Amino acid sequence: MPAPEAVAALEPVPAPRVALPRPFLLGVDGGGTKTTAAVLDLRRSTLTTATAGPSNLDVVGLDGAAAAIMEAVRGALGRAGATAHEVAAAVLAVASADTDENQEALRDRLTELRPVGRPLVLNDVVAAWAAGTLGRPGVAVISGTGSNALGVAADGRTWRCGGWGHLLGDEGSGYWIGLHGMRAAVEFRDGRAPWSALVPRLLAFYRLDLVESVDDLVYGSLDKAGIAAFAVEVAAAAAAGDAVAHRILTEAGRLLADQVRTVIDRLGLVGEFPVALVGGTFNSGPPFLEAFTALVTATSPHARLVRPRMSPAVGAVLLAARQAGAERLVDWAGLGALRA
Fold first, then answer.
1. From the DSSP assignment, how many helices (H) and strands (E) are in the chain?
2. Which residues contact 16 (CB under 8 A, 6 or more apart)?
3. pTM of the model
4. Which residue segment(s) compose the domain that 128 sits in?
5. 169 and 142: one domain?
């Protein structure tokens, strides 16, 4: 669950401050594949962004995450013509930043941001929620390299489901799909499963001569993002009519929907509310999306499945504006057109 200070950031500030001596806001979205920093100039309503490598704490560790975050932040601030001394508030939404301890440890490593004061470090799903709902009650579900879901009720209660990483969870994610695509090829090699076009796709994608070589690859040099990358091939095989790939995508959609349904049930969400779909896995094709949609709407028929109006990095900027009391100074719907 979000920390108390994170929950406070979800609550709208009643009135904006008249003038901000520091005219910039900073938001960061850090995941298992990339890190994006976005800087908003409140005077001009202009947005600048920069991207660096992954910053998922479970994947690259605290030092690696801090390095990627600061590379992206320096780039975005530089393009905005700003320094950290001119930033009114900063929200860093980082995958696997789940506890007070690792959030504080990450903040301690971001020494260049100390002029900001105390940047708020959150799990990346919180920024995805802000981006998908414009900071209003509803649910956001991430399915990219990993998976996660967060809901916020009208009374401010929150519930998160998933986000346990690839060893304990990540069901319905690109990693889960890629891994099960690889397993399908291995199981065919063993004689435990039927032929699938995933076998030649696996060999071609990773430039292997034999299926037997996949274990050296997976246990040797391939990381989480490298396994998740194979999800694109699973989607392509399903689109071409492969039954095994189709089944993998369908199951992934169902597992992801189960996270969303758990959030909805825990919060008691009823009637119409948004469910924001965040991440590239939602582009995997009909088997995934139809299975996901069917399960969510079976119990919440008035839930609105929406694509975010802005990127998660801009969602983090929205939360920074909320922290600074500047949320009402910005046309967030219009800003969303400048997607980071």
1. 14, 10
2. 325, 326, 327, 328, 329
3. 0.80
4. 4-134+310-338
5. yes
